[in-house]
Design a protein that fits this description.
coiled coil; cytoplasm; GrpE_CC; elongated; alpha+beta; about 190 residues; GrpE_head; stress response; Nucleotide Exchange Factor Grpe, Chain A, domain 2
Length: about 190
Amino acid sequence: MSDEQNPAQEPELAEQDTEQAQPEIDVNARIEELEAQLAEAKEQVIRAAAEVQNTRRRAEQDVQKAHKFALEKFAGDLLAVVDSLERGLEVADATNETLRPMREGMQLTFKQLLDTLRRYNVERIDPHGQPFNPELHQAMSIQESTQAEPDSVLKVFQCGYSIHDRLLRPAMVVVSKAPAEPPVKIDEQA
């Protein structure tokens, strides 16, 4: 009877088969769960790496801007000196021989100051005769003109300046407009 199986043992074998199948299902479910967790962790690592890269890039851009515009306040303060020299040159009588050496010295100083500003990418905006641009010019008044196109700069009170293509100070200007039409006379006797 050893070769023959006991009918009472058959239910036990059926139970063992069920028990072995159950752990396989649990193992497969656990594998799927762990794979999902692994995929989520990989995605978080990729996001974290991207965030670090973005932060590094922003920091580099901030440093570049700081280097580029570090002189902005200093250059803005020097513009008062440029304006004073320019006004002094405008009022100094060019025909007076006693003022000639002083005027020449002021011209050289003015030129050196503008050249120095230019070396540091501070550019002068002198829009005389150009179309009015509200992004670069500040209109101080509007004047009728037959010689200039409407909305063009007739006179510059104070030149503007930019640093690395960023406006430091707008140019103060007088803008032209078309002359007003004379009133039409109506012949009342007709």
